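Lab meeting notes turned into a lecture example. A postdoc, R.K., suggested we walk through two folding results consecutively so the class can see how the record format repeats. The first protein's sequence and structure tokens come next.
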Amino acid sequence: MKNKELYSILIVCLMMLSSCLGDTNTRITVGEQEAVYQVRPTKGFYVKDGRFLYDSNLSVSGDGGDCFLIEYSFDSSAPELQGSDSLSIELIGNPISVPLWPLDSQWTDTTKVLKNEVLTESLLKRNAYIRGRLFLWSNHTETESQQDSFMMSYDPEKMYTAENGKRIYNLYLRAIKKVTEKEEGSEGEEGTEPTEEEKTVKVLITNAFNIEEFYNKAKTFEEENGEKEVAIAINYASAYNKDTTACLWSVTDTIKISFNGRTE
């Protein structure tokens, strides 16, 4: 009789523990998702579906509007998933900071090669527009120790081109190699080619760009014309001409951002 009572107590304890931890069968893990950090009124992250993610133990070094890649898990059976834009999560590891670059309305001359320009070989179709930040993933060939700066600009006199009666708003992406001055007495000159020890590698880089003002201008114009989304194309310097005096440009498929911020 005592064994049955102990067994019953053990079952109850296990059920209570399972309830506290959540059903592992309904636990979903999400890896490397774009997110924008919010500090007030509640600390957490906005992600591309418009949902706000929070963690009771959240500790992030950053300011509101900073960009990250996050990994997290959540309970897919949580009641708040129904009819709520907020979700309790458990972060996995530390969020990875994503550089945030401004949008420059001083349009860079696309016919010229910039000093220390770095070509962008391709852009992934993966992207996300979250609270004014546009996340892009670009491929480059660089030296192993190289770090680049990125710039995004647009032509304020001609923000869009027309195709089949639709407006496509154009942004221009360029990358610039950061060249550091050599320490006094060290060998080599600034901007020299990589040494034999420093081979070139193909890298995939994630950046975010603050295009909120640009998007809002486009959104206002599209709303006035009865549209429900803004179509944006990213133009990027992908090659040089034969004598390397000018850049050759490639362009992505259009990124469609609906007025609720969701991308297609």
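The second example is placed directly after the first for contrast:
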Amino acid sequence: MKKSLSLLAIVACSILLQSCGSAINNLPVFYTPAAVSNDVSYMPKPMMSDSVKVKNYISGSFSNSVLPYETAEMLTGFVNYNRSHVLKNLNFSYGGFAYFGGTSRGYENSTRKVSEEYYEKGFHGFGLRTSVGFAEQSGNTEFRILNWENSLSFEGGSYAEFRKT
């Protein structure tokens, strides 16, 4: 009896996993904003022990995102600028960023179709960032206890128009 229950549980589990696997392949593809998870990022700030209390930072980055099953790609470049200040136990930053890029074709996949309109779309955008934080100093170590990060971004281009439709 115990063996038959174990066998029945294994069969039921394998049927369930098979059905879930086919359901996953038939799910629709969702098209996210180009700057998703990149518009809010760490803004460097001077330490309280630094002699410089105000500093400007410029940075750039490049990313390549791939849709599930490698059906398509999205290439993005970012340029960031921020100005940071540090007071006794308070540090804050403000700045802006710009990004640009486009989409391209990936591998053909018969189980997960991407709209043909997705390919070869360009995008660009810009935004503003702020950051305010409280810190405590102990010797040469600074503990940044609580930070508030915020971002406001705008996106344009043919990819943004495609997402709206």
